[in-house]
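The data are passed on as follows:
___
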Amino acid sequence: MNAKGTRHGERMGKVERITRSWFDSAHHDISPTSTVTHQKCLAFLVPFLFSTIASAHTINYHLENAPVNDVVWFYLKLGYQHILPQGLDHILFVVGLCLLSTNIKTIFWQATAFTVAHSITLGLSMKNIIIAPSAIIEPIIALSILFVAVENIIVAELKVWRILIVFCFGLIHGMGFASSLNEIGLPPHAFLTSILSFNVGVELGQMTIIIAVFGLLIFWMGQKTWYRKRVVYPISICIALIAGYWTIERVFFL
């Protein structure tokens, strides 16, 4: 039996020991009628206990005994690639964040709020403290992209409350990151190192997008009188249409 199979067996054994101990103690202290009731409760609790144990974050057995440097590089690259080139929805979200303000510091403040927020929920999700099904998270992520794009069109300048909204959206995106990261898993001896490396990779991916948008668009055109009409509006409309399509697809067809 391989290591993964061994750990699966250990989990099942743990569930069996917990439930057997509970039932044995109950069997000696209660009446026969009550015993039947407890047997029914036991049958209900077994799958619940197993699902609770099994729903902890996936273990990456390939990196279980890997050097720290290898772990850092693996998750750093994974985080970056999750944004560029694989994360089209996150790319559009970050591009949308760049369009309402031409001030690079303001753009970075939004990105920082987003990063802090998704780091919180990513860590909590991977620790199995908060759990949200992707069927709920993915449509909300699409809606967050749609919201930012529409706001770019109807609002002339960035307001302070936009930072708070971006932070809230970051909390949702973090749970989306966790869903993807769980497919790869984390080495049990380097949970924090892996999470931090992944987050740094995500942040570097976001910074790459921001620098590209600022260097290609904002720096050259941001002060032009036609910037919003010819740049912000068309790009935001395209982002909104794509995000709207994603929202419908993720709600009704996935």
